[in-house]
Amino acid sequence: MALVTLAAESRNLIDGELVDASNGKTFENLNPATEEILGTTADATPDDMERAVAAARRAFDESDWSVDPAFRQKCLRQLHQGLLEEKEQFRSIVVHEAGAPVSTTPFMQIDESIEMVAYWADLAGRYEYETEMSEVMFLGRPQRRILRREPIGVVGAITPWNVPFYLNLTKIAAALAAGNTCVLKPAPDTPWSGTHIGKVIAERTEIPAGVVQIVASSDHAIGEILSTDSRVDAVSFTGSTQTGRRIMACAAETIKKVFLELGGKSATIVLDDADFAKVCPAAAMTCIHGGQGCAIATRWLVPRSRYDEAVALIKTAFEAWNYGDPTNPKNLQGPQVSRRQQERVLAFIEQGKAEGARCLVGGGKPEGKGFYVEPTLFVDVDPQMTIAQEEIFGPVLCVIPYEDDADAIRIANDSKYGLSGGVQGGEEKRSLDVARRIRTGTLAVNGGQWFHVDTPFGGYKQSGVGRENGVMGFEELLESKVIALPGR
Ligand code: NAD
């Protein structure tokens, strides 16, 4: 798959204009695979963010955007078409700035994400924003109630760098479909997966000025304005649990709605009646995109009765795993997004070794340029070890032995996170029974795939608050209003 030459938009979108930072400053965008500078991006200031929030507020309060679903549908269809025309540019951007393997881009990173906009356009048009409830009696008189769903207002969206185009797009498109205006602050490590969407919006759609702002900055504090400013009605955040906690605390001051999609430490339970030869090699998929995915299963729980067999199969899969240059279609793992992330992952690996886990494959970084980490397999991991409890966000798998089904469920649930996971077994009923007892937002049973734009996605416990995608995710972006009238 040949990549087109990078020609990314690097200015911010504020109030309908593609603009440089008000002080003219820029910040560098680095290719994590080569450590070369790809170019620079407008480095928004607090004044720029202030202007962006004001524009979003004005567009919500003073235009018909929030009350005209047919126009929103038309604009989202234009956005879908515009993104299709720029698809190869987005592919090139995400491979170069995020180090995403090109082989993974047809799925969530690019092609599938663009198709999701068609879903949001359709939902904007067909959703029933007003329904009539059944009549009730009050003091002997019948009462009618109209239930209206109205947009929340201005949505502040804050995103990370791992699947940047998907996350930027899903947050913008869902917010717009529901009739909100929005200010997106993309991650500083992957700014063009945000700013280039701004170019498509400005040049290929009729989305009115102020409805979408895209404000990139090297300064994380610029994002904090979105969780503190009283003109922002809701914050939709994906990223680390630590930042999510901070956003929730900041949002408390103005009682904002908060949607948080945070970290995970998901477990796949392999039951003793599973087809091990078929199932165990999939454990290497932990390393896809350098393990930089919140829902990846990074703990594999294996029955002690078949432990050696499972470990041997997983080890073989890890040794055969292709990683390296993300532009090479053979590779499913590229670099970590930054030196900081590479060092963070390597520190976890050292801690795993120090705490007594057995490192069977990898455990270091290869020679040469790029922020790579070797696919790393730890076995004989105790569930209480740091590597079994903390989100590493790297190509690191922990294999943990268990005694029986109840023990596997206990270990899987022994986590502050609750995002996703899986069960692999022979008999479907037994696998489902186990799945029902795992406290996470999504689960894959016997290789099933839950990810789709109509699937509500989010976490239990410290993996987050609320659900993204699907009608449930759409309704998170709506307020409810009940209007009562005397019955007929
Ligand atoms: P982060 O949570 O620090 O940053 C995510 C986004 O939040 C970025 O756009 C950042 O600029 C912004 N931000 C940071 N501080 C903010 C604040 N106080 N107020 C408002 N916005 C703020 O994540 P990171 O540094 O990019 O990655 C660190 C760790 O986060 C990773 O190692 C991984 O564990 C986790 N992570 C999780 C996901 C996920 O999807 N769950 C995605 C990326 C990273």
Describe the structure.
With 488 residues, this protein is of the alpha/beta class. It contains 16 helices and 23 strands. The protein has helices spanning 46-62, 69-85, 87-98, 105-109, 111-126, 164-177, 192-204, 221-228, 241-252, 276-279, 307-320, 339-354, 386-389, 405-413, 428-436, 470-475, and strands at residues 12-14, 17-19, 26-30, 37-42, 130-132, 136-138, 141-151, 154-158, 181-185, 212-214, 234-238, 257-261, 266-270, 297-303, 358-361, 376-379, 396-402, 417-418, 421-424, 444-445, 460-461, 464-465, 478-486. A seven-stranded mixed sheet has the order 15-16-17-14-13-19-20, with helices on both faces. It has a six-stranded mixed sheet with strand order 10-9-8-11-12-22, sandwiched between helices. Strand 3 (26-30) and strand 4 (37-42) form a beta hairpin. Helix 2 (69-85) runs antiparallel to helix 5 (111-126). The protein is globular, with a radius of gyration of 23 Å. The model has no long low-confidence stretch (mean pLDDT 98). Nicotinamide-adenine-dinucleotide is lined by residues 158-162, 185, 187-188, 220, 223-224, 227, 238-240, 243, 246-247, 261-263, 294, 341, 391, 393.
Q: Between the first and last Cα atoms, what is the distance in angstroms?
A: 65 Å
Mean pLDDT: 98
Q: Helical content, roughly?
A: 25-40%
Q: Strand arrangement, largest sheet? A: 15-16-17-14-13-19-20
Radius of gyration: 23 Å
Largest sheet: 7 strands, mixed
Enumerate how many helices there are, as a single number: 16
